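Module 6 notes. Inverse folding takes a fixed backbone as the condition and produces residue identities as the prediction. Think of it as a translation problem where the source language is geometry and the target language is the twenty amino acids. Below is one complete input and output pair. Work through it position by position during the lab.
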């Protein structure tokens, strides 16, 4: 009995690893020819076994038979074909090289050799054999497709594509579209490959080979949901199924992170992803061969945790993953950066990303910035700007497109300027960016935030109104509007905006910070200030002088009102004896947009019985630059203590106008009349200001000019009362931040002044002033400082000195 070996359309052939074709590609209809010799039953049995996949027996028989004498042409063809089935490509090549010059090997043997050379990536030899086989059987479609596949593998792209397109035009079958898909895939054009294989699938939706290729193209093109559904119709290895499930869950994470989706939708998708991961982790935890996929699921799950603002969970799981000693992929670095920064751990974030700075430049920049490492932050942003062109060319397009990375780098630079105390540069850059891209809401919000930081709250409000046109419900917009509303004393607006943001994104750090700002606004506020003379011979304050001022404000009532109560005390020793004043007060504060008013009643006791006082103070802002204000007082707080000691009281007031350009320049002009009970009338004038001379991230230096003058209508009174006087005292004020971490700041101040004082009938004398102090601000609820001051100046022609310490504290509780 003669046995023939055939390759049918249901069998697989050893192909390039990228190919999923079934055996229709090589359904050659090639069989063993009728042998001229008798084949014994043992050989027949080996042939049957080879066709069932048990190739070792036949291959061993042929190898031994060769040692006994030359093989005939059919035996050589058998050897080539069966060795190819067994994946022994090198054996196929060796057999071919030994026999092809000795005999005319039939087409099935030539094809086996062509496949072997192809699998060994010896493209020229393979293509030559394919051409030989096609000459032997020019009408064989399978030989034509095999040749096209090898052309694709050999990167002969134009010829492969032309032949594949001709193949489809000649016969638009599912198999030919599958060939076309393979050619596109070999060129790296995955979308074209997907289009072709989709057409093949539409023609033969039940073909498992086509479905396998479609599955790969969906996976490569990040279409994991349909890929996972399709995989359930195929018998796939468990490892591949797990990978598809991972891809599908990871796609949910990517979708949840898309900023253009509403926050509610993003949370919903993230919750769905977390539920999927919980199910996968439960299913794979006890499966030994699934541990790598189990770990990958834990890694990808970090992205979903981040979307849900579970920053502590991200950090905890990341640390656990690193604890097993295995590397964690770089793509999670950005997630961990956000989590660490949100948990106010910038040093840890910066140290982590130092291992791969190019991959996480924005995150590393903000980590450096929040760590107060301004030189490193500047180097990062400079490097990013230098390596980022304004335009980029997308693959296959001759038209340049704006580079998002360019815009990100400029936004980073603006943030650097703001944090490094260079607000003029920040304003210039953010204004240019906002006006250059009027449709970009984020840039407009950033510009408004810089304006607000410079005290230009009305201008910031206008910019936010412009930004509101683009997306009124933007969370970033509403947060910034809330802060600006607070600065403008638009309390109702502040409350409504904060309520909306808290409802929509309660877990977001920016929302929690805004909510805390509102909570602080609703707390009690205690203000304390005073000074203690250490060594003084001033006729104004006396010796062993001490003053204490305190006031406690209650929480806001009906948005605009705050009750307050306080106690003031002053004492000093004069030639005629000790003076003191005890002042108990209470009143109400009213605030609304551009207005502030305080009304106060007080009871003063300074040794001459109880006296009732009153005060009304107010100011109004016309704009960001101009403010007028003033006060009127019965029993003025500015009455010299020595006058009170001698039974002289005073009523008075003041009026002032302030011009404010920005945080670097402002001036104030004031006039303050006082009417004493002894008939004296005093008029005081003052002009003071600030000019920024130097600014650095942790240091500022200001010029503080001060000009003052006064006149009095009466002389020979028991308190210091020059007929006329005039002083000019320009000074310098330096502040150095010793330590800063978010809302906690420890700083030191150094002040100095040198000027002249003129007094009628006493001439002109030198005025010298020095001061050193420190200040602590903690968590936005405590602001306290103390300063040691020394000055020496003339009084009635004699230079006298004063050494004292002043203090102040503002605490919210």
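Target side of the pair, the amino acids:
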């Amino acid at each position: 009995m003669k046995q023939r070996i055939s390759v049918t359309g249901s069998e697989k052939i050893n192909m390039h690893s990228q190919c999923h074709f079934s055996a229709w590609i090589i359904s050659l209809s090639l069989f063993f020819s009728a042998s001229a010799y008798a084949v014994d039953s043992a050989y027949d049995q080996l042939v049957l076994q080879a066709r069932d996949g048990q190739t070792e027996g036949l291959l061993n028989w042929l190898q031994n038979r060769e040692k006994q004498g030359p093989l005939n042409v059919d035996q050589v063809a058998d050897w080539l074909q069966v060795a190819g089935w067994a994946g022994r490509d090198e054996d196929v090549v060796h057999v071919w090289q030994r026999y092809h010059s000795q005999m005319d090997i039939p087409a099935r043997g030539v094809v086996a050799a062509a496949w072997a050379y192809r699998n060994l990536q010896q493209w020229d030899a393979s293509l030559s054999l394919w051409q030989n086989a096609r000459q032997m059987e020019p009408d064989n479609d399978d030989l034509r497709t095999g040749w096209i596949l090898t052309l694709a593998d050999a990167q002969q792209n134009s010829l492969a594509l032309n032949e594949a397109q001709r193949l489809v035009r000649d016969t638009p079958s599912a198999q030919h579209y599958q060939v076309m898909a393979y050619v596109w895939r070999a060129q790296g054009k995955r979308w074209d490959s997907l289009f072709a294989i989709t057409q093949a699938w539409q023609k033969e939706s039940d073909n498992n080979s086509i479905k396998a290729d479609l599955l790969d193209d969906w996976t490569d093109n990040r279409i994991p949901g349909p890929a996972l559904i399709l995989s359930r119709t195929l018998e796939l290895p468990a490892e591949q199924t797990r990978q598809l499930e991972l891809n599908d869950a990871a796609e949910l994470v990517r979708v949840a992170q898309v900023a253009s989706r509403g926050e509610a939708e993003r949370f919903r998708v993230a919750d769905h992803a977390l539920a999927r991961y919980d199910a996968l982790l439960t299913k794979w935890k006890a499966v030994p061969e699934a541990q790598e996929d189990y770990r990958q699921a834990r890694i990808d799950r970090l992205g979903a945790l981040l979307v849900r603002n579970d920053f502590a969970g991200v950090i905890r799981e990341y640390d656990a993953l690193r604890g097993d000693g295995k590397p964690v992929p770089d793509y999670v670095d950005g997630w961990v950066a956000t989590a660490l920064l949100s948990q106010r751990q910038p040093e840890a974030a910066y140290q982590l990303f130092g291992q791969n700075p190019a991959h996480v430049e924005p995150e590393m920049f903000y980590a450096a910035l929040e760590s107060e490492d301004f030189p490193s932050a500047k180097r990062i942003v400079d490097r990013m700007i230098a390596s980022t062109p304004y335009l980029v060319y997308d693959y296959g397009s001759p038209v340049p497109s704006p580079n998002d990375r360019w815009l990100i780098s400029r936004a980073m630079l603006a943030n650097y300027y703001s944090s490094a105390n260079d607000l003029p540069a920040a304003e210039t850059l953010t204004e240019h960016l906002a006006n250059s891209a009027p449709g970009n809401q984020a840039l407009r919000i950033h510009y408004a935030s810089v304006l607000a930081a410079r005290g230009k709250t009305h201008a910031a409000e206008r910019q936010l109104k412009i930004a509101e046109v683009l997306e009124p419900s933007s969370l970033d917009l509403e947060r910034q509007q809330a802060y600006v509303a607070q600065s403008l004393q638009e309390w109702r607006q502040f409350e409504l905006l904060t309520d909306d943001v808290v409802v929509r994104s309660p877990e977001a750090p920016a929302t929690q910070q805004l909510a805390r700002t509102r909570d602080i606004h609703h707390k009690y506020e205690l203000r304390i200030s005073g000074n203690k003379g250490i060594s003084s011979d001033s006729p104004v304050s006396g010796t062993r002088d001490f003053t204490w001022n305190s006031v406690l404000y209650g929480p806001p009532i009906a948005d605009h009102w705050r009750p307050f109560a306080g106690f003031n005390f002053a004492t000093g020793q004069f030639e005629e004896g000790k003076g003191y004043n005890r002042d108990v007060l209470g009143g109400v504060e009213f605030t609304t947009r551009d207005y502030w008013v305080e009304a106060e009643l007080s009871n003063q006791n300074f040794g001459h019985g109880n006296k009732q006082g009153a005060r009304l103070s107010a100011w109004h802002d016309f704009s960001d630059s101009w403010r007028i204000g003033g006060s009127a007082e019965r029993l003025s707080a500015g009455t010299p203590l020595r006058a009170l000691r001698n039974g002289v009281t005073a009523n008075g007031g003041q009026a002032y106008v302030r011009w404010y350009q920005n945080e670097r320049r402002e001036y104030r002009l004031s006039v303050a009349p006082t009417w004493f009970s002894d008939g004296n009338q005093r008029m005081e004038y003052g002009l003071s200001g600030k000019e920024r001379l130097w600014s650095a991230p942790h240091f500022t230096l200001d010029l503080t000019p001060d000009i003052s003058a006064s006149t009095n209508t009466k002389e020979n009174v028991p308190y210091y009362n020059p007929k006329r006087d005039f002083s000019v005292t320009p000074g310098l004020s330096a502040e150095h931040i010793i330590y800063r971490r978010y809302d906690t700041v420890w700083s030191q101040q150094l002040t100095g002044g040198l000027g002249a004082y003129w007094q009628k009938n006493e001439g002109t004398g030198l005025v010298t002033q020095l001061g050193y102090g420190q200040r602590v601000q903690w968590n936005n609820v405590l602001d306290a400082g103390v300063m040691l001051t020394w000055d020496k100046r003339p009084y009635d022609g004699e230079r006298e000195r004063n050494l004292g310490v002043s203090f102040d504290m503002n605490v919210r509780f």
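Reference fact for the lab report: Residues 473-522 form one domain.
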